[in-house]
Amino acid sequence: MIAHVDDVERIRRGVVNALPTDLSQLLPPPELMPASAAVRAELKRFLGLLTDYPSRAGKGIRGRLLLLSAEAHGAQAGSSGAEAAQTLAEALELFQNWVLVHDDIEDDSEERRGQPALHHLTGMPVALNVGDAMHVAMWQHLQRLPTGTAVQRAEALQEFGKMIMHTAAGQHLDLAWVNARRFDVTEADYLAMVSLKTAYYTVVAPLRLGAWAAGVTPSPHLEEAGIDLGVAFQIRDDVLNLTAGTELGKEFAGDLYEGKRTLMLAHLLEHAPERDRQRAVTLLDRPRRAKRPEEMDEVLALMQTHGSVDYAQGVAEQRLERGLATLQAALTPLPGRAAVERMLALVGELAARPS
Amino acid sequence: MIAHVDDVERIRRGVVNALPTDLSQLLPPPELMPASAAVRAELKRFLGLLTDYPSRAGKGIRGRLLLLSAEAHGAQAGSSGAEAAQTLAEALELFQNWVLVHDDIEDDSEERRGQPALHHLTGMPVALNVGDAMHVAMWQHLQRLPTGTAVQRAEALQEFGKMIMHTAAGQHLDLAWVNARRFDVTEADYLAMVSLKTAYYTVVAPLRLGAWAAGVTPSPHLEEAGIDLGVAFQIRDDVLNLTAGTELGKEFAGDLYEGKRTLMLAHLLEHAPERDRQRAVTLLDRPRRAKRPEEMDEVLALMQTHGSVDYAQGVAEQRLERGLATLQAALTPLPGRAAVERMLALVGELAARPS
């Protein structure tokens, strides 16, 4: 485990500071619009809700990766490139936070980072609106990127927009398949979905944004490597969801309750005999609240019996290996040798088989 | 009725064109991520959903007001200022559209512009994500604002962020009061809520963004006037919700079903005798689906009996008159005389008493 607590903590503070902290950032001047004590108290609560998810402990992987990429691409400590990388890392983690607020609503998740999901604390409408305000704050923060330097500011902003659009497209596939109760999602469909939904904002964009911050055009191989590594990361996350306890602050087997399409599920439905296949679909194709723990255990047992979990682990390892090789080749010519080594260790760690 | 069909239609087309129209804008290059026919078909559906609300006929008031403000502030046809105003007008209408997608979820509205609300067509999760993608597209569109000219680009972008943050703060008050089942919302609280929720994006921001587009620092009186006019507009909209038929493409008395705090309600609860007050609260303080039409008619009758509707109309007229006077004074020194006249007519029309 590589500890960059300082980086993580500095990014986390930057995210909280990127959000409005004072009522004057929400309200017009008092001579134009008086605000009663009741209004002010409710808006103070709103300010608190904006920082709820960012204040919960996260690993800050994406922000760390972005900072390392900037350093690897030659951004020196104290330069405008390093400053741009810091702002981009904060905006990226803020992105992750508002997306989680909305994801938790979309999936009706119970918990996030060991505490109740925001919409369970506030009701869905308030939480949805909180996510929107966090989204705006992210773009406001991006406007503070330094200008007039070597930083490729316009390219970094475009990268951000493209990253979010890919993520939304992947999220659409995920949600639309659940909504349509489609159980014929193939392995290729799953891989396309997670490439879009996870790989861009988790690996591709951090790698590329670090390059733009340093004023360097990213190697096209970063996108190729980032897709492989992001897919490996998501598969590992899906496997952990089914096999780990609740110590990670997520529900056990939440994906089964939420009816998520995973590689394990695609494998099971493609390879199990008809009887087991039918049984799995029957158990999964119910509203969340009609699903019982022993039934979800039964689905998991079917996945283990038919080798679906091992199969998914294998695919993750292949993608990790290929992605690391591509990344290593792409990073070799870069000036920041120490940062390159730390990046390779970090991505290896994040997408590795759970120990 | 002032007809600027060409402007409205040009803005509407600009909004649709600001959204991704091609799968290549959602997908990585095929050599990096193959997409099956099923994935491509589902993402084509996603592209269609992004343009659903923008394709429904809207009045385009905010975009028209912004274009007129730019012209009044001296942006000549064909100049970079006029080009910036057009981009800002499209982004503003796109803002309105994604906010409506999310608002309709938050309020569980039935209809929008005469058709079912998006989440009733797609399910809530898919619609929420569609709204997020539209939000991103809005910021992507704003990045296309012309640079290196007289246009105050950075100021316009800041104005956009501030406008959305005000809107979200007002929306928070609205939603939090409904969620907390608070019936002690005063007239002052209501006025603060709608100043934030409606006045900024409907009047203040269009007026000020037009100035920035023309490269002019807006008069501080535009904010003052815009709050008055925006409040008048929202009160009129609330009154219409209770008194008009369904020809506007909105539900009749939807605000009562949704439990919205309005000026009529604040007046009724402040001025009705205890018995009527209790009765109104009892009828309104129920989940939407437990409310019967004859009960909502009863609440409306109470509002009429106690003069709450007339009172609200009166407040709207006062704010309209004061806002128009302030606006007229602020606009008098501006170069674009013809545009000033058309602006005054347009805001007068939008906030006037329904005929």
Can you offer a commentary on this structure?
The structure is a homodimer of 355-residue chains. With 355 residues, chain A is an all-alpha fold. Chain A has a single domain, classed as Farnesyl Diphosphate Synthase (Orthogonal Bundle). The first copy, chain A, has 16 helices and two strands. Chain A has helices at residues 5-18, 37-50, 52-55, 61-72, 80-106, 118-122, 124-142, 153-179, 187-213, 221-243, 254-258, 263-271, 274-284, 293-305, 308-331, 337-351, and strands spanning 111-112, 115-116. In chain A, strands 1-2 form a two-stranded antiparallel ribbon. In chain A, helix 4 (61-72) runs antiparallel to helix 5 and helix 5 (80-106) runs parallel beside helix 8. The interface between A and B is large, with 65 and 65 residues.
